[in-house]
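3.2 Worked example (two chains)
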Amino acid sequence: MGLTFVEGHVSGPTGKQRDVRFLVDSGATYSLLPHDVWQELELTPKRSATFAMADGTALDRKISECHLALAGQEAHTPVILGEPGDEPLLGVVTLKILGLVLDPFNRTLHTMQLRLG
């Protein structure tokens, strides 16, 4: 296995925009925007949640939402508002909202087969 990165374009409620290089993390629930990015987009916290790290450490982070475009898809998605030192992650909730799935063998994103029932 290897690391998979994708380029995304994020925008906030004020219309400010930024390109971000995300690490696709199929083990992460929500996507994460670094501190400088969400500050630049003028995102505001909507709620907080506690997240478990791989080593079992619990971290409290604030959550907001933004518009995200990548791999030919775009939608609004919840995002964790990162603290200084946090790196951008693309989590499974965002992938599902965009209708995308990670091919771990080719390390690429593909349109998922959507099911109605």
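3.2.1 Second chain
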Amino acid sequence: MKRALLAIALLALCFAAFGHAAADIDARYTAKTKTLSIAFTHNVKDPSTHFIQGIQVRLNDVTIISQVASAQDTAEGGQFLYRVPNLKKGDVLDIILDCNKGGRNSRKMILN
């Protein structure tokens, strides 16, 4: 039993060592075009096997975007672009990015 627990613990540590969250998230909303741009930094060796996979955008605590990606743009990171109508001053956007190998980063944005 102790060996099994030790093996599981070591496996979990190995898995966590290879995955990591996005280092930086830059989100911008352009009211004129009603577009939300989410750029991120996530340095990896191969963006087709290690990438930001889960993208979630919450507006005032309600999920409005949930996407699963299968790769990222480059080995340095990538960008997602969404059309989001009807946002107004004071709205709070929570942007959550998940790495397919483990790791999560988020950014809160209050519209001006």
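3.3 Remarks
The radius of gyration is 17 Å.
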